[in-house]
UniProtKB/TrEMBL annotation:
<dbReference type="InterPro" id="IPR007110">
    <property type="entry name" value="Ig-like_dom"/>
</dbReference>
<keyword id="KW-0732">Signal</keyword>
<protein>
    <submittedName>
        <fullName>Uncharacterized protein</fullName>
    </submittedName>
</protein>
<feature type="region of interest" description="Disordered">
    <location>
        <begin position="291"/>
        <end position="341"/>
    </location>
</feature>
<feature type="disulfide bond">
    <location>
        <begin position="279"/>
        <end position="288"/>
    </location>
</feature>
<dbReference type="InterPro" id="IPR000742">
    <property type="entry name" value="EGF"/>
</dbReference>
<dbReference type="InterPro" id="IPR013162">
    <property type="entry name" value="CD80_C2-set"/>
</dbReference>
<dbReference type="Pfam" id="PF08205">
    <property type="entry name" value="C2-set_2"/>
</dbReference>
<feature type="domain" description="EGF-like">
    <location>
        <begin position="251"/>
        <end position="289"/>
    </location>
</feature>
<keyword id="KW-0245">EGF-like domain</keyword>
<feature type="domain" description="Ig-like">
    <location>
        <begin position="141"/>
        <end position="251"/>
    </location>
</feature>
<feature type="compositionally biased region" description="Low complexity">
    <location>
        <begin position="291"/>
        <end position="321"/>
    </location>
</feature>
<feature type="disulfide bond">
    <location>
        <begin position="260"/>
        <end position="277"/>
    </location>
</feature>
<feature type="signal peptide">
    <location>
        <begin position="1"/>
        <end position="21"/>
    </location>
</feature>
<dbReference type="InterPro" id="IPR036179">
    <property type="entry name" value="Ig-like_dom_sf"/>
</dbReference>
<dbReference type="Pfam" id="PF00008">
    <property type="entry name" value="EGF"/>
</dbReference>
<dbReference type="InterPro" id="IPR013783">
    <property type="entry name" value="Ig-like_fold"/>
</dbReference>
Length: 341
């Protein structure tokens, strides 16, 4: 009786096992970048089955629906047409649990696409199989990065760019052309990340040759705090890419708007960020805001916060001013009051 019961359990469990089936697992990285320095790409496929009574039958590598190499019961691959143009550009290896396919002489866009690995096991008449895929990105790195403004004026690397306060928004566009895949951008000011609110989402245009031009904008107001800072754009388009970068030094004109009161004439000192005021008779430096103390009987002009038609202070600048100065103590880019000589 006892033997009969054991026999029954074996039959029942075999029946359940047969219903459940075997699970073949095939794992691949979802995307793989080619190495633009070596022109090689390595695709890896890890596989297994949860039932040791099954043995390995075959592993097939495909590009789209084209068979490129297979291992039928062996560890020696057979290569197909794809691998013969040019000859020898595929090299595949296999163990009992993984296979690697190394592709060389890569060409964009020819070799970019979906690569599959299908593994089949066998036991009696059962041949369970599973496929997984990776998308290969054939990297075309950026050769050049350019920086230009909204009217198309391009800036050379390391140059000095004035943020005029005549313009309320200065748009800088950073662009890399003819790359694959698209780039991501990092903007910094003196090494610190630029506030994300000032950066637009990058735009990626794909040309007829399938290569991409990626662009990113940063919009800066002419704030004095930007004076003397280095604005840098870095573009990266693949894993481990050192990236390409370009930078400019921003200057903000300290005479724009005019910090001088009472019709003082502003000029920029040689450092490019400090203003100095030339005051009319009767007013004192640094900002011509104070009346010269007098001992004579002649009456000097009353110190004024001269007002324009809009009621705001105005000046007699040498160049037209968009915004007259506020009647406050102006500060230099370093936060200290600007000083005269
Ligand atoms: C493909 O492989 C990944 C692991 O790299 C795994 O998460 C995924 O489930 C696999 N897909 C299939 C269909 O087996
Ligand atoms: C763009 O840069 C050029 C060259 O520096 C300059 O002449 C032009 O005024 C700038 N345009 C804007 C909108 O800033
Ligand atoms: C950048 O700004 C310019 C000028 O306003 C605009 O034409 C262009 O589409 C913008 N580009 C991006 C990537 O936002
Ligand atoms: C700009 O200059 C920096 C520093 O010299 C350099 O690393 C970078 O490659 C240059 N970029 C371009 C586009 O020439």
């Amino acid at each position: 009786m006892a033997e009969f019961a054991v026999f029954q359990i074996v039959i029942v469990s075999a029946f359940l096992f047969g219903l459940r089936g075997q699970t073949v697992t095939v794992n691949m990285q979802s995307s793989v970048y080619s190495n633009p320095n070596t022109d090689l790409a390595t695709l890896r496929c890890d596989f297994g089955i949860d039932d040791p009574t099954f043995s390995f039958l075959t592993l097939e590598w495909t590009f789209g629906s084209t068979l490129i190499a297979d291992f039928f019961k062996t560890t020696t691959p057979t290569y197909y047409d794809f691998c013969n143009t040019p000859a020898g550009r595929c090299s595949a290896t296999r163990t009992s649990s993984n296979s690697e396919l190394v592709l060389s002489s890569l060409e964009f866009p020819r070799d970019q696409g979906t690569y599959g690995c299908r593994v089949t096991y066998v036991s009696g008449s059962q041949t369970p199989n599973k496929q997984n895929t990776s998308s290969l990105l054939v990297v075309v790195p950026a050769a050049l990065v350019t920086l230009f403004n909204a009217s198309g004026g391009t800036f050379t690397n390391g140059s000095v760019v004035k943020l005029s306060s005549e313009v309320s928004e200065h748009i800088f566009t950073c662009q890399v052309q003819n790359i694959n895949p698209e780039a991501t951008f990092t903007w910094t000011l003196d090494g610190n990340p630029v506030d994300s609110g000032l950066i637009s989402n990058p735009v990626h245009d794909v040309g007829a040759d399938s290569l991409t031009t990626s662009s990113s904008n940063v919009t800066l107001e002419p704030k004095r705090e930007y004076g003397g800072q280095e604005l840098k754009c870095k573009a990266v388009n693949y894993e481990d890419d050192p990236g390409v970068m370009i930078s400019v030094t921003l200057i903000v004109d300290p005479c724009d708007p005019n910090p001088c009161y009472n019709g003082g004439t502003c000029s920029v000192m040689s450092d490019g960020i400090t203003a100095t005021c030339e005051c009319p008779t009767g007013f004192e430096k640094p900002l011509c805001e104070t009346k010269v103390p007098t001992t004579t009987s002649t009456t000097p002009p009353e110190p004024t916060q001269p007002t324009g038609t809009d009621g705001k202070p105005t000046t007699v600048p040498t160049t037209p001013r968009r915004t007259p100065p506020e009647p406050t103590q102006p500060t230099g880019t370093d936060g200290k009051p600007t000083t005269g000589k």
